[in-house]
Every structure is written in C-alpha cells, then in structure tokens.
TrEMBL record:
Upper classification of the organism: Bacteria, Pseudomonadati, Balneolota, Balneolia, Balneolales
Protein name as annotated: Uncharacterized protein
Top-level division of the source organism's lineage: Bacteria
Length: 61
C-alpha cells in the first residue's frame, strides 16, 4: 500500500472511530468508499480488526 492510500485510509478510519456506534462508523466508511468496493472492504476489515483488538484488551484487564 502506498503512502497516499494509507493516509486516505487512516483519515477515514480516524473519522469513523470518532463516531459512537458501529452503524455511524459504517456510514462514514460508506460515504468515503462509494463505488469503490476494494476500498470499502479494506476499510471494513481494518475497522473490524481495531474493534477486535480493543475487545481483547478490554477482556485482558
């Protein structure tokens, strides 16, 4: 992944994580990845992995 694409993904994920619910987060992803299935899938997978990591950290405490 090139640096420009990574910055784009990072910005979208940061904005999505500012939202309170998964539904609101998905709306942000949908907004920025409209008509780009590959980007949409990457964003969803990245967001899912963040949620899983947060859940694991919570359970370990």
């Amino acid at each position: 992944m090139d640096q420009i694409r990574w910055k784009k993904i990072e910005g979208i994920i940061d904005e999505a994580l500012d939202k309170d619910t998964p539904k609101e987060q998905k709306k942000i992803i949908d907004k920025y990845s409209d008509k780009n299935k590959q980007l949409h899938q990457e964003l969803l997978l990245f967001l899912e992995s963040i949620h899983e990591a947060q859940e694991e950290n919570f359970l370990q405490k």
